[in-house]
Amino acid sequence: MKNLVVSDIHANLEAFKNVLEKSGNFDAVWCLGDIVGYGPDPNACINLLRTLPNLSCVLGNHDAAILGDMDVRLFNQEARSSIDWQRTHISIENLSYLKNLPEKINLPGCLLVHGSPRYPLWEYILDPFVARANFDHFIENFCFVGHSHQGLIARWDPSREKMDWNSNVNGNMYKMKPRMILNPGSVGQPRDNDRRASYGIFDEELMSWEIFRVDYSFETTQQKINDLKLPGKNAQRLAGGW
Ligand code: ZN
Asked: Which of 58, 127, 220, 224 could bridge 40 with an S-S bond, Cβ 3.0-4.6 Å?
C-alpha cells in the first residue's frame, strides 16, 4: 500500500495538480487539512481532492473558519481576507463536504490530524519539546500532521529517552520506526524558503517515508490572486516559500 500524504493545499490548484501529476502511482491519499484558505481556487481544489482514491481527510483550522466554526479574529489580516472571500464563493456542496470532515482519523497504526494530536486544529509542532508532549496524546505508531507548512520527522525513543528531530528531510528515504510524528510539508504554501510544492509518500510495504518537492507555475497562482484582489502578500510569499 502506497499512501500519498498531502497537507495545506490552501486553494492552490496549480501546486496541487502538479503534485498529483508527479507523484506517480499511489493506492490511497491522506490529506491533513487546510484544503482552503489563502489561495484563489477553493472549489476546484476540493473537487479535485474528492476524485482521489481511498481518500482520508481531516479538518484544518482554515477549513473550520470557512464553516464559521472558528473566530476569524484569530487569523492574521491576509488569511482573514481570503477566508471572507472564500466563504462567499464556496459551493454548498463543498461546504457540506468540509462540514463532515473529522478532526482526527485513526487508521491501523496511524493517526491523522491537522495541527497536533493534543490540539488538532491549533497547535504547531515546531520544536522537540512540543513534539515530546504530543507523544503522550496518541497511541498509534505514527502520527501524521500538517499546519506548520514544513516537513518533519520526529522520533521518540523511550529506551534512550531521546528525541530524534529532523526538519531537513527533502529527498531522502527514511525507514519508519515506531514511534514517529511526520509532516509532509505544504502543497500550496511552503514555509521553508523553498517555493516548490511539498508532499510525502508513506510506503507501507517498505515501511519508508519520503518527502518530495515539485516545481509548479506559482506565477499563475499569483496572477489569479491579484486578479481577484485578494491580499498581495498571499501572492508574494509563494515566490519565496515563506
Ligand atoms: Zn495551513
From this structure: 224
